[in-house]
Design goal:
15 helices, alpha/beta, single chain, six-stranded parallel β-sheet
Length: 378
Amino acid sequence: MSEPLRIAWLGHQSGRAGDGLLTYSREIVAGLRARGVKVFFVHHGALAAVTDDTLTLRSLTGSHRYIISSPRTKRTITDLLRRERVELVHVSLSFSTLIDFGLPELCHELGLPCVATFHVPYDSRFGLWQGISTAVYRLYAQSLASFDRVIIFSDQQKTLLEHYGVPADNVAVIPNGVDIDKYAPGASDFKDSLEAGALVGYLGRVDPEKNVDILVRAFQDIDAPEDVKLVVVGSGSDKRRLDRRYGSVRVVFTGQVMDEAKRIAMLRAMDIFVLPSMVEGLSLSLLEAMACGVAPVATDVGSDGEALRGAGIVVDTKDLDGQLRLALRTLIEFPDFRAELGRLARARAVERYSLSDNLDRLLAVYRELRPAAGAAAS
């Protein structure tokens, strides 16, 4: 019998937060293991600890999004790769300031293929966020060109990387994937618990670039019936301020919800899902809402507009206030229309964004880079 492919996955884990980076690592690692791949999951934490297939690295910072590694990190990872006879390394960027730019050289010294998933949000429209994302893409481009393969989420993002010097042959477009069996339409009592006749929802980080304040103001401005409510699920730097200012019986801030079953129940209860971000990559929360059959509204940033166009309402960041009000009013006043959008969104998620398809395409990349070992994964 062929030996399973042995990979090191450098990703993200946190017991105090939940976002797309964490979800990506959790879902892909679990999916690969379910398909017989031997995955050694490497992530940062407050205390260093080792189990049979997980290595927790010491971090000098508290956030999983902005990590400064211990000076011993490179040596610790090198020891793992040699000791466990790892055959391929996959990193979810950004992983840490110490590792991101030096990992290809380290892997190639050991004779290992090196794959990176590049999550950094982008905005192709001229403005502040476009300038920020351009600077970050320029910063990473030289390092990304050294990886054997870079995983990104859309053709538009691929074009952007090629523009900054990443060879086209090194780039693989594999969109984010969602478990379409787990995230699916179904019964939920969450709407009843809020005594809502219709429910508008947001799920994600509550930080300035997410524009949650604009969503709340648009919701208040449309003067919807009293039983139409807005729920904001998530935490971040703006959560406390927005909750103090807008929190009420009709605008509910739940904070971070770590339990996945509860998050799924919340998504299933929503009639309308809104993602008003100023900048994105490809939002997993948007894909999860689509898979649950919720009528989606999202800004045309990153790859979200591409994912949603024809299966939801895409709004322009240049007129976010006005277009959000129009979208909310339309979907609230015409329940048959929002139900149809929910069906279209579910069909789009099944057709293009299933986790199973994502794993198939990822394993094909592994086989291409490590043919003999990759043939053992299925």
